[in-house]
Amino acid sequence: MSDLRKQLREDRLLRDAAKRNVLADVENVRENLSGQRIASRVLGRVGDGAVDVFELAKEQADDKRGILAALVGAILLWLAREPLFDFLGLSDPESEDEDDYNYERAEAGEG
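The chain above was modelled as a monomer; its predicted structure follows.
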């Protein structure tokens, strides 16, 4: 009998230890799958990816400064096209289309 009781006590101890391990694992899973934890992981990975892309872009920009300068210049010219057209005495074809449309609407009495 004492052998059986000893075995029963050991089995209960093992069962309790296993139960504590399972509960600890469940708690870890809950913590890892909580919304804040997932959001921080995603943001961390996105941030790391953004840093990698920025570093790669910086390396590429160092290699191709002339192309980058031409691209920036073209964008600036596009943004400043209306004042440049006015200065040169030319008209912007896009604004002419809009003016014609407004004139036609005014003639038709559409307001």
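The chain has a mean pLDDT of 80.
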